[in-house]
Amino acid sequence: MSQDGLFEKVLIANRGEIALRIHRACREMGIKTVAVHSTADADAMHVRLADESVCIGPPAAKESYLNIPSILSAAAITGADAIHPGIGFMAENAQFAQMVIEHGFAWIGPTPEHIRIMGDKVTAKKTVIELGLPCVPGSDGPVKDFEDAAAVADRIGYPILIKAAAGGGGKGMKVAWNRDQLREAYQLARGEARAAFGNDQVYIEKYLANPRHIEIQLLGDHHGNVVHFGERDCSIQRRHQKVVEEAPSPALNAAERQQIGDLAASVAQRLGYRGVGTMEFLYEDGNFYFIEMNTRLQIEHTISEMITGVDLVREQIKVATGAPLGFGQKDIPFNGHSIECRINAEHPETFAPSPGKVTRYHAPGGLGVRVDSALYDGYRIPPHYDSMIAKLIVHGNTRNECLMRLRRALEEFVIEGVDTSIPLHQKIIAEPDFINGDYDIKWMEEWMKRRQGS
Questions:
Q1: pLDDT range class, residue 165, cuts 50, 70, 90
Q2: What is the pTM of this model?
Q3: Which of 168, 277, 308, 383 is the most exposed place for a label (fewest CB within 10 A)?
Q4: What's the pLDDT at 3?
Q5: 454 CB contacts (<8 Å, ≥6 apart)?
Q6: pLDDT per residue over 48-69, tens digit each?
Q7: In this predicted model, what pLDDT tens digit does every residue of 70-89 receive, in sequence order?
Q8: Among 395, 390, 393, 394, residue whose Cα is nearest residue 361
Q9: SS3 letters for the chain?
């Protein structure tokens, strides 16, 4: 570490826009960076800008960005003090976090134990219930067999949701409206969970009819201090994947906002949580139900930054050094409204991936407009990774001002050579339901069905 207590060099164990985001925060803190990359990412923006770069393998993620020995070797040969896992890949791998620490590097993230607890949804649910968080009614843990699942469903009432115990992203998730549907859904969910996570355990929850997806951004230090940065509404989703996020939620009133923020922060404090993290809830009829905690930076951390003015990546790095938070809850301002659109390299109607060469790139600008992207003219988007290529984030004093600014920014955004989801976002934000803030987690897929049928 340097004399001022900061890291001297951070290895960024990720790629794309989040690797660039972390590099920028480090650069502004006077910290040198090491970029690791696959052979497919040799010309990536974060590789070009980092102080040092190390190739850690071929394009396949399991041989590069998921290759623990290669990442640790890169940190050792470059003399890195710390490793930042970014988002995805190794960010919520408790074994990797533990190995980073055991090899003498600082881990910019929560403790391996917290990653382990919150990575198993059943254990996470038991843990937070004991600490006072409300959860959706359901089984106490994985169900043993179909008869056990049916007994739980009879107790809490149909419809019910079957969910994989070992993962998320919509894998191993099925809805059953009666006992006959439950039998088939139970087998399908177990099969999907086994294929996706190597673990076929599933649990049962009450299926909420029209909930919103509300999450609370948290930050804790090594000294028992935890603060929150308000809520984000992530209800615009397709196949359980977030598409548009906004902060604050148009569905909550001031009392509800304070209630869930304070409750989430107090539970995280009693957990002894440190680093950034996000507690996610379903919200319906004035009630919040905990669903999971993400023990890492979130893609949509940007909108929390826009309404508070706090650089969450900078603060994440600071607390990883052992430094206490430099502010309390009362010091965090909440100003205006922010919306983020995730821009993917895919067809806006069929959602078919569209890797390839970017022949023209122009990012929108102006007051309150931010673009997090690693694209540039001539960049070739590889086919091996997630299709998200940019995040458009806007801020306004009011939600209406924010919407108008977002509309203008989407019109300015130019990405040619590949298909993108920009036209899809233009259609979503023009819908009266979205303009009025009247949507839930099922809205987008129902809207898509209506459009296809028209």
A1: confident
A2: 0.90
A3: 383
A4: 61
A5: none
A6: 999 999 999 999 999 999 999 9
A7: 999 999 999 999 999 999 99
A8: 390
A9: CCCCCCCCEEEECCCHHHHHHHHHHHHHCCCEEEEEEEHHHCCCHHHHHCCEEEEEECCCHHHCCCCHHHHHHHHHHHCCCEEECCCCCCCCCHHHHHHHHHCCCEECCCCHHHHHHHHCHHHHHHHHHHCCCCECCECCCCCCCHHHHHHHHHHHCCCEEEEECCCCCCCCCEEECCHHHHHHHHHHHHHHHHHHHCCCCEEEEECCCCCEEEEEEEEECCCCCEEEEEEEEEEEEECCEEEEEEECCCCCCHHHHHHHHHHHHHHHHHHCCCEEEEEEEEEECCEEEEEEEECCCCCCHHHHHHHHCCCHHHHHHHHHCCCCCCCCHHHCCCCCEEEEEEEECECCCCCCECCEECCEEECCCCCCEEEEECCCCCCEECCCCCCEEEEEEEEECCHHHHHHHHHHHHHHCEEECCCCCHHHHHHHHHCHHHHCCCCCCCHHHHHHHHHHHC
Q: Which residues face 106 on adjacent strands?
A: 82
Contacts with 394 (C-beta within 8 Å, 6 or more apart), sequence order: 306, 338, 339, 368, 369, 370, 402, 405, 406, 409
Share of the chain above pLDDT 90, in %: 91
Q: What percent of the chain has pLDDT over 70?
A: 99
- Quick one: pLDDT at residue 168? 67
Q: How much is the pLDDT for 277? A: 98
Residue type at position 454: S
Structure tokens at 212: 């919103």
- Cβ of 330: how many Cβ atoms within 10 Å? 7
Q: What domains does the chain contain, in order, with CATH numbers? A: 9-108 (3.40.50.20), 137-206 (3.30.1490.20), 212-453 (3.30.470.20)
| Pairing mode of beta strands 388-396, 32-38 | unpaired
Q: What is the rounded distance in angstroms from the CA atom of residue 443 to the CA atom of residue 283?
A: 14
The residues carrying an active-site annotation are: 296
pLDDT digits (tens, 9 = 90+) for 386-444: 999 999 999 999 999 999 999 999 999 999 999 999 999 999 999 999 999 999 999 99
